[in-house]
Amino acid sequence: MTQKESICKFNKFGYCKFGNTCFRKHENKKCENRGCSGRECSLRHPRKCRFWMDFNYCKFGCDCMFSHDILENRNNTKEIEEIRNKLEDLGIKIREKEAEIALKDAEIKSTERPT
Question: Taking the model in full, what pTM does it have?
Fold first, then answer.
């Protein structure tokens, strides 16, 4: 197997600094098979972008050579659950305040003098 026939491991799992001038083969298609180990597969298996994982932001955006797959971000599930809990708590507080307002309105209407 010549060097050009062998797969570039840097491109396969992330970013190759040599780009198109690399001596090894660059496959740009990303493997969609979730059960694939990546060792025998010649398609790309990019690692998760550390900036996307830590900050949910990457300056390279969709051009980043690493994975920005939202489903792979383990922190998102926890964050979504926390936000749902906060929304539920806020909904309860809103309903309580609406009930208080309705009681105050009824109290005000009952104390108003007919004119």
Answer: 0.50
